[in-house]
Write a structure and sequence with these properties.
Length: about 800
Amino acid sequence: MGMTTPPRTLAEALRARDDESLAGLLRARPDLLTPVPNDITQLATRAGTRASVVRALEHLDRFALQTAEALAVAPDPAPYETLLGLLTGDGRDDGEHRDDADAAIGDALPAALTTLREQALVWGEDDRLRLVRTARELLAPSPQHPSPTGLGPTVAEATAGMSPGRLQDILATAGLPATHDPVSAVASLSALFTDRARMGELLDTAPAEALSVLDRLVWGPPYGEVTPNPTPPVKWLRDRGLLLPVSTRTVVLPREAALHLRAGRAHRVPEPQPPAVEAVANRDPQAVDSAAAGQAFLAVNTVEELLKNWNGGGPAILRSGGLSVRELKKTATALDVSEPVAAFWVELTYAAGLLASDGEADERYAPTPAYDDWAELPAQDRWVHLATTWLAATRTPGLVGGQDAKGRALSALGPDLDRSAAPEVRHRVLALLAALQPGTAPDPETVLARLRWERPLRGASASAGDTTDLRSRIALWTLNESELLGITGRGALAAHTRALLGSGPTEAAALLAPLIPEPLDHVLLQADLTAVAPGPLERPLADMLSALADIESKGGATVYRFTPGSVRRALDAGQSAADLHAFLAAHSRTPVPQPLSYLIDDVARRHGHLRIGAASSYVRCDDEAVLNEILADRRSATLRLRRLAPTALAAQIDPASLLDGLREMGYAPAAESAEGDVLITRAGARRTPPRTAPVPVPEGPPVPDTTLLGAAVRAIRAGDTAATVVRKDPADAPAASSGSLPRTTSAETLATVQAAAMTGSALWIGYVNADGAASQRVIAPVRVEGGFVTAYDHTADEVRTYPLHRITGVAELADDATP
């Protein structure tokens, strides 16, 4: 094909591209690459399939999509000027504002066309632009699927089934010359609707009510229902062809007439430029970073608190998977957050690989071994792990509480919460925030408007059960979750997040570290049996204090309260009264209050006085009076106790229930082993087997890397060479025509291959492999010996060796077709 010859098909247009352009097509539409097409023709065929075209259209921005929609209602092929006219109009409604809009359209249209050409949705030169047939079918109007432009069918399409007599009546009423040729009649009516002057004269004679009917149809939908006896305005329009019948009860405004009424524009509001993201507040960048850092530290602590609560084994897993509503409420209460926020933290912890199922018969959630490694990291590194997980995760916590396509409730940690669009939306929202000046908080509505402009067809492309604009919902969830996670502060993007998006995790952690408070090694004990931690505590101190006291309130300072139950918990964990006194004295900046010392001594004195073991269970005590007191207490009736000896009682319930029952009665029993030793209960010992974090669900085929793209382009080029190369068919082998394997005798094959090896020329061969599959190849023989030919295979783009007995025949290439 000569350089000046216009392409006749999409395959020819792709064949004329350079390798970089082909690689760009495969990068933009990676679904075309699986498997690698054999040649350009197969690539063009695959690029025109419905599924691939739909995917490509979904990735267009609004103006590129509007350009494709305009081409779908334009003549095929359409010159550039016609396309521009459909977007700007014919100038009848010009004004200063209209001129500015038309100028913006004219500036943006070349880039939109370039995008459509790069993605093989449009091909041809500017004087013959063609939209691929599948895209035209998807975007062109029909009664079942109205055009996105709101335009109806052309006069020719709408009158295809109309009788010649009815056409003559329309021509006569419209004042057009009669013709018995239906094609001429349609052309005459189309010419009337596209003639500005004559169409204006016709509409000047229309009743006002008829013009009102046209106003309702002009911007779509163009279809309307009529009764068997239509009103005079509708009859006036129908008699003149301005409304054409689609069925006995449906009429349509033909496209040519609608374009006249629209002043030639295919769209009411073309949008050549993306809407700007507007600011609602400009804040001090340092205040933003401080607020975000504080929230980042709180996020790390929240995840740690969640996992500490589930250290001994978390909630049971539903049979259908996930957390029950009751367990989610309990988690929300424990974290002092709302249920949707609790679902977010649970899902983030799971996505980060810190939480998983223990895999036991009575399946429960528990921390994974990776949690222990994560907990030893500095706070800034723990945050980076959570933030990078959130950016890449396809799990979408905002869906919790909704329903799937079958009406089943979506639960936290349950199935069906993956949305492949989530990572792309999160990155795009943060990129829009990063484009603003530091400290600028955006207006969420303008962020949503920008996302809708960038992917207008992707809003409802959700998984089953999502019927609204999924991308907008994910974007709103992203803004809220960013604030919870410390990605943003007071609505603006923080500096450490900008570094995370740009430079990477190391730089982000370095920027965040100075803003996170240093852990403290002390608390302030108070006389009301509370301790105040004026900041974050060192990990060993926090762990011990959480065992010895209950958290009463959180905030800038954490308040802990000492109770008999909390002191008993520390004693159960193996601490003695002396250990607790020493711990408090070493870590309090204030003297240990006397009431707290008395509380510890009192609980320790009674702790372990009673011993619980397994009979089913038993109670042992050296003090007979204590056992007599228990038996006399009416509350012990449910424990079903009986005396075995002066210092021992037996029960018919398990030891754990007996322990809880006696504690509710005000005693402080201790469990003992079969050897009579006190059992020490240590928190944090339960872990799942090693687990990997859940893998995000990808959105379509992954974008190929440069190496794969280069190899794919070479393979496609080589296959195309073999498929399109010009051959010299031997005079005595007329069957060796295009599309069939060449046929030559063994002697002729050997002689031709040997000659080609000596001259360095290329040959076209037919080859049958060991599986019996036949193929055509273009090879350049290098060596022929031992019944094998070693050659450079242009089809495979590599050197290969072929047995001569598997070559069906050979043919020389034309002189101007050497690869």
